[in-house]
Amino acid sequence: MRFTLITSLVASVVLLQGAIAAPHNPLAQVVTKCKKNNTVALTFDDGPYEYAYDLSKALVAAGGKGTFFLNGNNYECIYSDDNVKRIHYLHEQGHQLASHTWNHKHLNTLKRHDLEFELGSVSDALERIAGLRPAFMRPPFGEYNNLVREVAASIGETVVIWDFDSTDSIGATPEESKALYDKTISEKPKSILALNHEVYRTSVQDVLPYAISKLTEAGYELVTLAECLGEEPYQNVGKPGKKDGMWKC
C-alpha cells in the first residue's frame, strides 16, 4: 500500500513537471463578423495593385473607408516603386492596411518555419514601407488551422475571415456579385464583413460602385475592419524606413 502511494505521488509530480515544461501555445483570435451595428467593412485581398486608386476614390467619395489585405509577392512585389506609392496613398486616405501573407499559399499545408516567413515578411514590409505593424491578417482561401493561429498569435495578429463573399475570385459575373449584395442587403443584417478582391477590373469598376451605393442607401456606414470591431488597426505606428537591400522580393 505504501509503495503504491509513493508511486502515485511520483507520477503526479512527473505529470505536473511536464505540464509546466510544455505550456500551451496561445491561439490567435478568429474574426468572422463585425461587432458594431449598421457598419460594413469592405475588404480587398491580393493587392497592392493598380486598381487601389479606383477603389479608394469610390470609397472616399461615399464618405467611407476600406481595408486592404496585402500580399508580399503575389501579383507584384510589394517593394516595387509603384506599390510603395500605392501603399502610402491608401494609408494617407485613411484606409486600413493588413496582411494577406507573402506568397498567397495554402497555409494549412505549411510547417511552422514557412508560416513564420509567410506572415512575418508582410508585416516587416509594411513596417519598412509605411511604419505600420498590422494587427490583422487574412489567410488565403480562408484556410487556417491551429498552427496558423499559433504563428499569428506569436506576432500579435488576429485572423480575419468574412461573413459575405462577393465570389469575384471564383469567376462570378458582375451581375452575380451584384445579386449577392442585393440579397444580403435585403436580409438587413446588423453588420457585414465583405470579401472582395483588388485585382479584378470588372469587380472594382462595376460591382463595387454599385455595392457602395446600395449599402449607403440602406443606411450602412462604410468603415475599416478595425472600426467595425472597435479595435486598433496596428500594433505600432512609426516612421517609414529608408529603402535598402532588404526591400526586395
UniProtKB/TrEMBL annotation:
Classification via PROSITE patterns: NODB (PS51677)
Its membrane topology: Lipid-anchor; GPI-anchor
Top-rank taxon, per record: Eukaryota
Keyword vocabulary terms for this entry: Carbohydrate metabolism, Cell membrane, Cell wall biogenesis/degradation, Glycoprotein, GPI-anchor, Hydrolase, Lipoprotein, Membrane, Metal-binding, Signal
Localization in the cell: Cell membrane
Molecular-function annotations in GO: hydrolase activity, acting on carbon-nitrogen (but not peptide) bonds; metal ion binding
Protein name, per record: Carbohydrate esterase family 4 protein
Organism: Pterulicium gracile
Lineage of producing organism: Eukaryota, Fungi, Dikarya, Basidiomycota, Agaricomycotina
